[in-house]
Amino acid sequence: MFKRVDRLQIELPRPTNPDPEAATTVQELMGGRFGEMSTLNNYMYQSFNFRSKKKLRPFYELVASITAEEFGHVELVANTINLCIDGSVGNGSTNPDDTPLEPVLPLGNKANFIMGGQNALPMDSGGKPWSGDNVFSSGTLVTDLLHNFYLECGARTHKMRVYEMTDNETARELCGYLLVRGGVHVVAYAKALEKATGVDMTKMLPVPNLDNSKFDHAKKFEDQGLHRKLYRFSDDDYKLLDRIWEGPTPVGPPGELEVVDGIPEGAEIPDLENIPEEFAPGFDEQSFRELSERLKYDAGL
Predict the structure, then answer these.
(1) 247 and 294 share a domain?
(2) Is 185 within any annotated ligand binding site?
(3) Is 47 part of any known ligand binding site?
(4) For 11-32, what is the HEC assignment?
(5) Does 164 belong to an annotated binding site?
(6) Which positions ≥6 away from 282 have C-beta within 8 Å?
(7) 37 and 181 both lie in a single domain
(8) Separation between Cα atoms, residue 241 and residue 259, nearest integer Å
C-alpha cells in the first residue's frame, strides 16, 4: 500500500510572473521518454512483478523504495509546471468576447491551456502524451537493473539540458534537486548490479561526465549530503537497503552512504490562484463563500 503525505519533497520558489515557455520545457521532465512518469512506472511495475522477493529481498526493497520516491518526483514536477504558469497569462478580461486567452496563441504547446486549466499534464515538451510503451519490466533482475541504470543516466542528461534552457528559478530548483536525487538512483542501481554480478558500474559515473557541483541549484543539495541519502519511504518496511546502499559515495562530496528512515522533511504544497478565464477551479468569490458555509469550513476567506 502507499501512504500519502500532503507535502512536497522540497520547497519551490514561486515565480514573479507566469513563464509558459519554462513550463513547456519542464513538461519533458514529466512525460518525456526519460521523464518522471517513466521512472515511476518502470520501477513500480518491476516492483509489482518482482519474483523471488524473499530470496532477493534487498534488490526488491531497493526498487520498491525508489518507486515511492518517484511518486513524489512526479508531484514535484507537476507543481513546478503549475507554478510556472500560475496567474493570468491573458489580457486581464473575464469577458469571453474579449478573447482573454489570445496571448496563448503564439505558444508552441497550448495543451496546458486547453486540455488543462493552466496546469501540468502527463505529456512531453511537444505535447505528446506519456505512454505505457515506455515501461520495461522483463522479469529478469539483471536486465531490469541495467535498464534502470540506463534510464536514470538518460533522465540526468535531460535534466541538465532543461537546466541549460531556462533561467527560471523554479525550474532550476527542480532540476538541481532531481539531478542530485536522480544521481542517488544511478548509484543505487550501479551498486545493485555490482552486488548481483561483480561488475563495478560506478567507474562509469557520472554520465554525462559533468559533476553536479557545476550547477548552483544542484550543488546546494549536495552540500546538504542529499547525494548520500537513500530514504526508505516506509514506517516499518524495507530495512535491508543497507545490504546494497553502503560504503563511500562514488560521486559528489566524499562521505558514507546512508539509509534514512521515513521520508524527507519536505515543504508546503503551493496553493494555486483562481483563474476565471480558464474556469479553474470554476468558482467566483461568492461561490467560494457559499460552498464554505455548506461544508462548514472556513477556507481562509
Answers:
(1) no
(2) yes
(3) no
(4) CCCCCCCCCHHHHHHHHHHHHC
(5) no
(6) none
(7) yes
(8) 7
